[in-house]
Amino acid sequence: MLSEIKLPPSIKLLIGLLTVSIIVWWMYLLQEILILVSFSVLFSMLLYPLCHRLEKWHFPRTLAIFVCLLVTLAIMAGVISLIALQIADFSDTFPTFLKKGETFINELQSWASHNLHISRKKQVTELRNQSLTLLKNSGNIITNALGTTLNSLSSAMLIPIFVFFFLLYRDFFRRFFYLAFGRGNRKKIDLVCTRIYTVVQSYLLGLFTVILIVAALNTLGLWLLDIEYAIFFGTLAAFLLLIPYIGIMIGSILPMLMALITKDSPMYAVGVAGVFLFVQFLEGNFITPHIVGSKVSINPLAAMIALILGGQLWGISGLVLALPFIAILKVVFDNIDSLKHYGYLLGEAEIHHKGGGRILG
């Protein structure tokens, strides 16, 4: 064993860095399959309580899993139907929306001509040049967008299959860990698996609760400002919380555009921005820390670093998976004696304020 060999600290550090580098390289190289497996594992953990309950009611495991998947697909179908209805409403009001948009553009051109001394002719010429440039690049843009969409859809279609097998073979995987780490460590393996499941389950349920609260706050704010489709915009921005820190701000763009075009004053758009900024402040400082943070027990610095690294490694998927992944890593570190100090580094730090205004850990 490496731990039993007397090596200089510098050599151990070098071996550790090389090991981490190789793991990260393989994670990047195999990101498509690893992202698919990671999401499938999270969905399996989310569906496990229902599946376990059905099995207690003497459902065969295969039938219980099918019922869980059907319930999930029914919920997703309902959500997609609601989105489709909202889009249908958009299409009915599109002529009015387009007319107000033209009026807004004309007013903007007049403002630019009067205040910035840019003639309408120059504005039209620049707009035509930009349109031609966009058309030239549109082929590549559309091709890349379609390719990305098709790849995402094909991967998403495989998730239910992976979820089915993860739930079906969960005892098989547990026995594999017994064989890999020795049956003498059976109790410890069971403890780690239980803690991982508890942390991830708590994170997912906490995140869902946060989404519901934020959706209600967004919708209330938009409704008070009399913005059309307040429920749709508020809920959409809340679900974009799955992209930490920037998701809710991305979700504010559409209602701000709606306010600019459908309202007489641009102050409505400023009000929409204010609503989302206020909700994001509440979410980041009070709602998420109390509902999710206490269950995951990861300090904010470690969470931010994990989010940055996850985004660089796997893009948006990495942002979504970063927090549950780092929470699982902490559970593993906490239960391995030689790695407990890393688990301590990821955990919540106790800050004590002592004399002289100094902050000591």
- How many angstroms separate the termini? 35 Å
Strand content: under 5%
- For the biggest β-sheet, the strand order reads 1-2
Output the radius of gyration: 26 Å
Largest sheet: 2 strands, antiparallel
> Number of DSSP helices?
13
Low-pLDDT regions: 355-361
> Average pLDDT, to the nearest integer?
79
Oligomeric nature of the chains: single chain
The coarse overall form would be: globular
Number of strands: 2
Which class best fits the helix and strand makeup? mainly alpha
| Helix and strand run | HHHHHHHHHHHHHEE
The percent range for helix content is: over 70%
How are the secondary structure elements laid out?
Blueprint: H1 9-29, H2 31-56, H3 61-92, H4 94-115, H5 120-168, H6 170-181, H7 186-224, H8 230-239, H9 247-251, H10 253-262, H11 267-296, H12 300-334, H13 340-346, E1 352-353, E2 359-360
Antiparallel strand pairs: 1-2
Helix pairs in contact: 2-3, 2-5, 2-12, 3-5, 6-7, 7-8, 7-11, 7-12, 10-11, 12-13
What does this structure look like?
The chain has 361 residues and is mainly alpha-helical. The protein contains 13 helices and two strands; from the N terminus they run H-H-H-H-H-H-H-H-H-H-H-H-H-E-E. It has helices at residues 9-29, 31-56, 61-92, 94-115, 120-168, 170-181, 186-224, 230-239, 247-251, 253-262, 267-296, 300-334, 340-346; strands at residues 352-353, 359-360. A hairpin with a 5-residue loop joins strand 1 (352-353) and strand 2 (359-360). Helix 3 (61-92) runs antiparallel to helix 5 (120-168), helix 7 packs antiparallel against helix 11 and helix 7 (186-224) runs antiparallel to helix 12 (300-334). It is a multi-pass membrane protein. The chain crosses the membrane at residues 12-28, 34-51, 63-88, 153-173, 194-217, 229-254, 266-282, 302-333. Belongs to the autoinducer-2 exporter (AI-2E) (TC 2.A.86) family. Keywords: Cell membrane, Membrane, Transmembrane, Transmembrane helix, Transport.
